[in-house]
Design brief:
It is a single chain. With 630 residues, this protein is of the alpha/beta class. It folds into 3 domains: 236 residues, Aminohydrolase, N-terminal nucleophile (Ntn) domain (Glutamine Phosphoribosylpyrophosphate, subunit 1, domain 1); 203 residues, Rossmann fold (3-Layer(aba) Sandwich); 143 residues, Rossmann fold. The chain is 36% helix and 24% strand. Bound molecules: 5-amino-5-deoxy-1-O-phosphono-D-mannitol.
Length: 630
């Protein structure tokens, strides 16, 4: 939820930490701070609000040391103000923290009884106090102090600590949110995400839970929480810097909306045979024992193993949050109709606490763009305790925690998604859900080759169809000033289009802070109809599919109550044109691919309305890209 960067090396830490924080700002942007060595002490500079506020303050500061830590915050405990901003400093100790210390209140009150004075309302400051006690009062080294406090901490955390007593050292430790280290040419960078490390090195080491990294003089040593030395593998990352640049677009989100044709093509590419127009999920990894063996996979054996797993599946659970959850709902329609396997879709925060009954021969699919979402990860870990159940992850960030811990792995291949509102990861996931549904259907002998060919051809047509749909950018740009005056938006669809209505409403809420509801169109008369008047915009998804006539009837009901209808349908639909204030025509597609096209105008609508309201489209208020706390 927050972003951490630490640096030690020959360069100026201020510049490296600030550019690292800039690349991590998507993780949290309500306050930021650094502590950088200067004249033997860690000088702390912090600011409320966006990173630019901190940058302005830092313009006036210089540092003579070569070690520093930095943090960009998404507040959990305590308001987003300067006092609560990280780093937290107690005596010679400074720390930055991402996550939540769940037992902080009791530990804090014990320390207060012993005379400790807390300056902030955060849970994080406690960690600085605990380390201080050991380092200052009991004379332990920074490293030993960290080891000795680990048993006391409950919760999810990744932490980086420094001490003025031995300022050339840093200690990183984690249980939960990611921490990655890169070392090159006498420099070491520690960060919450790869973006902040890539300018220094492409060879990185992922710190695992309950591990500690000790950094000194450009070298890193890894230890278990009990202090045993560990030998850890370095991973080379393929990365191009332009992936994290706007490339002329006004916002990352707009760039990412326009990248969707490529994202779909990249998601499909590994798994489709372009000669036979058939599907085979490649390198899923069910055949090997553990993530680290994925490199040695035997492709044919893995195909066989995936097929075997799919053949045995009697029930499917899909677990995710937010936009990924809506992608899972689309998956439910696809899998049930194509493969005839019962599917349950759950929001991860509910799934993990509702004592879900998961029978043997179930497959659990977890979806997460970031691969770090705390609730989804907890659900995965819960399921993994049941030995009879396989977990298949669908992630965008390779080697993320969810990816590493699942039995089987599929990749969105959407490229880095910076905008907090998810767009391209969503359509990539819908593409993969199509492939998973078809593969399950094939394993269950429910899909003949003619239908398989048709579905594949419809999928392959999506990227170029999307290019046409993106022309609605101009329409929403010019309509945004009118649209922003509606008091609310009701998004409706039926069947597989219903989750797209939910996703459209979520996009408008998170970007334009407007009241928007997604509804199954057939449910409208059970309540939401009361909302409709001339101030309410109705966005109706009405593609040519089996439920077309029924959805048109729902549209007429909304129109009869005075709602202003924007309908989204297939091709030249005269009926919809007559019934709607605006009719948006999508290319004719199949029932399985309509959702991939329908979501694009909804993303553009939300983007342009938010932009015309002058809201921060890439970093909407109160949100963060990667939700690593409950
Ligand atoms: O990284 P994940 O896919 O697990 O994230 C799940 C949600 O937090 C995410 O989709 C969120 O709803 C986005 N802000 C939606 O735009």
């Amino acid at each position: 939820m927050c972003g951490i960067v630490g640096y030690t090396g020959p360069e100026n830490p201020k510049d490296i930490i600030m550019s690292g924080l800039k690349s991590l700002e998507y993780r949290g942007y309500d306050s930021a701070g650094v502590a950088i060595l200067h004249q033997g002490q860690f000088k702390r500079v912090r600011a409320e609000g966006k990173l630019t506020h901190l940058a302005q303050k830092l313009d006036k500061e210089s540092f003579d040391g070569h070690v520093g830590i930095g943090h960009t915050r998404w507040a959990t405990h305590g308001e987003p103000n300067e006092t609560n901003a990280h780093p937290h400093k107690v005596g010679p100790i400074s720390i930055v923290h991402n996550g939540i210390i769940e037992n902080y209140a009791e530990l804090k009150s014990e320390l207060q009884q012993q005379g400790a004075v807390f300056e902030s309302e955060t849970d994080s400051e406690l960690v600085a106090h605990l380390i201080y006690q050991k380092n200052q009062n009991e004379g332990m080294s920074l490293f030993d102090s960290v080891l000795s406090i680990l048993p006391e901490l409950t919760g999810a955390y990744s932490i980086l600590a420094v001490s003025e007593k031995r300022p050339e050292e840093m200690v990183a430790f984690k249980n939960g949110p990611p921490l990655i280290l890169g070392a090159s040419g006498g420099a070491v960078v520690v960060a919450s995400d790869l973006q902040a490390i890539m300018p220094i090195t492409k060879d990185v080491v992922y710190l695992e839970d309950d591990e500690v990294a000790f950094i000194e003089k450009g070298q890193v040593q890894f230890y278990s929480k009990n202090g045993e030395a560990l030998d850890k593998a370095t991973v080379h990352i393929d990365w191009s810097p332009e992936q994290v640049e706007k490339q002329g677009y006004a916002h990352f989100m707009l760039k990412e909306i326009f990248e969707q044709p490529r994202a779909v093509a990249n998601a499909l590419e590994p798994h489709i045979d372009l000669n036979s127009h058939t599907v085979r999920l490649k390198n899923v990894g069910f055949s090997v024992d553990g993530f680290d063996q994925l490199d040695q996979i035997n492709i044919e054996e893995d195909f066989k193993k995936t097929d075997e797993v799919f053949k045995s599946v009697e029930r499917i659970f899909i677990v995710a949050c937010g936009t990924s959850y809506y992608a899972g709902m689309v998956g439910e329609y696809l899998i049930e109709q194509m493969a005839g396997i019962p599917v349950e879709v759950d929001v991860a925060s509910e799934f993990r606490y509702r004592h879900t009954i998961i029978p043997e021969n179930s497959l659990v699919i977890v979806i997460s763009q970031s691969g770090e979402t705390a609730d989804t990860l907890a659900a995965l870990r819960q399921v993994k305790k049941l030995n009879s159940v396989k977990v298949l992850s669908i992630c965008n960030v390779k080697r993320s925690t969810i990816d590493r811990e699942a039995h089987g792995h599929l990749y969105m291949n959407a490229g880095v998604e910076i905008g907090v509102a998810s767009t391209k990861a969503f359509v990539s996931t819908l593409s993969l859900m199509n492939l998973v549904a078809m593969s399950l259907a094939k394993a269950k002998n429910n899909l003949d080759v003619v239908t398989e060919n048709k579905y594949v051809e419809q999928l392959l047509a999506v990227p170029s169809q999307m290019e046409k749909v993106l022309a609605y950018d101009k329409f929403f740009k010019s309509a945004a000033d009118t649209l922003k005056n509606f008091k609310g938006f009701l998004y409706m669809g039926r069947g597989i289009n219903f989750p797209i209505a939910l996703e459209g409403a979520l996009k408008l809420k998170e970007l334009a802070y407007m009241h928007a509801e997604g509804y199954a169109a057939g449910e409208m008369k059970h309540g939401p109809l009361a909302l409709i008047d001339s101030q309410m915009a109705i966005v109706m998804l009405v593609p040519q599919d089996a439920l077309y006539e029924k959805t048109v009837s729902n549209l007429e009901e909304a129109k009869a109550r005075g709602g202003v209808v924007i309908s989204i349908g297939s091709g030249e639909d005269e009926k919809l044109k007559k019934l709607s204030r605006h009719y948006l025509s999508l290319p004719e597609a199949g029932w399985t691919t309509n959702p991939l096209l329908e979501v694009l105008p909804l993303q553009l609508l939300a983007y342009h309305v938010a932009n015309s309201l002058e809201y921060d489209v890439d970093q909407p208020r109160n949100l963060a890209k990667s939700v690593t706390v409950e």
